[in-house]
Amino acid sequence: MGGGSVHFTANFWQFHEIDFVERSRRGPMAGAFADWPLTYADLEPYYTKVEWEVGVSGLAGASPFDPYRSKPYPLPPMPVKSSGVIFERAAWKLGWQPFPAPWPFFPNLTGAGQGASIAGAVWDSAAR
How far is it, in rounded angstroms, from Cα 50 to Cα 33? Predict the structure, then answer.
């Protein structure tokens, strides 16, 4: 057994505007039966509310693909470490624009207000 319910990489990506109207914009394709009955603008306030309640770290505007957002992320991006630094340097050399993924920081998981960052399937030991 496995899959997304077992391994959670903890990226808090938002859908983009195009995701709600793919059928209208790109035409019929497998898996895209109809446009959504709502828009990104309809959901954006809820995305923001959840990000601020959970405590998502990220850098608004760093991704050239990011949709409009009414507020920045509540926390700064997680530091880039070890292999991530190598990857980031290589990406810049290739002319790409690497950016930090939005990650949650759950400040109330420990009960002591210390918080726990979740990366992959690994939880901070204090959060167990």
Answer: 28
